[in-house]
Amino acid sequence: MRRTFAALAVGLLTALPAGAASAAPTQAPGCDVVTAELTWGFKESFRAYIDGSIANGEWTVADGATYDTPDFGFPAESGRVDPRQPNGSIAFAGSVRFTGHGGILDTTVARPVVVIHPDGTGVLLLDVSGPTMEGDQVSVVEAEFLDIDLTGQNLTPVDGVIRIDAAPTTLTSDGAVAFPNYEAGTAFDPITVVADVGDCDLTGQPIGTDTTGDTDTAGEAGMPWLLPAIGVAAVAVGALVVALIVTRRRRP
Ligand code: HEM
């Protein structure tokens, strides 16, 4: 009887899929951004043109953006990054309004978003509005404005901080439509991102799958059958223990 009980108990437990014994919920690997800043000069030659003798203009920052020569600063609104793939995005607040030529030039760029793709490429999305040099009116939201070259960037958090240091950028084809004075491929100023991710724990399931279910996790979302299976096993083991005790008591 004892051998039967032991074999049955072992059988029940081993019948449970791997990972069932360590069913503690795991934290998703993506890091929520606590605070972050995007530092970016937009385009040095454009700034020189604006505040030089041709455009006789200026720029003004709003909605949280700052300017400290030669860079604009944009504070993060929200963001989530998985440094291991890497993968994610950080959205920033703030706007910069460039004016010149007595008001004929009046372009506002706002709300940049840094997107990091798993293939190692990056994109900067941007809202752009205002008249072009040809007099057409542009108004785009979250346009893919710049390609970001992330080659050599290590996105592993150091002391809770993820850094993208002076990553080179070039104008995309959509960017050239939104800002038509430059051709696609034109170099813009490099971007620097400093993102505080606190004490983010990188174990668990991939970014974006924590609420939809994932096979890498032992959490409820990934293995909905797990808790019922453990319950059934516990009841079966309990019944066997009772049976064992009753059998022993009946022995002469
Ligand atoms: C009265 C109207 C305008 C005049 C007379 C004018 C004139 C000029 C001139 C002479 C340049 C060449 C600057 C240089 O090579 O150093 C230039 C460049 C440029 N203009 Fe205008 N412009 C006008 C309106 C606009 C408008 C509405 C925009 C829209 C954003 C614009 C955007 C640009 C840009 C992006 C450059 C290139 C700056 C650079 O990176 O060197 N301009 N403009």
TrEMBL record:
Residues 36-193 form the Htaa domain. The keyword Ribonucleoprotein does not apply. The chain crosses the membrane at residues 225-246. InterPro entries: Htaa. The lineage of its organism: Bacteria, Bacillati, Actinomycetota, Actinomycetes, Micrococcales. The keyword Repeat does not apply. Residues 1-23 form the signal peptide. This is Htaa domain-containing protein. It comes from the Bacteria. Keywords: Membrane, Signal, Transmembrane, Transmembrane helix. It holds the Pfam family HtaA. It comes from Pseudolysinimonas yzui.
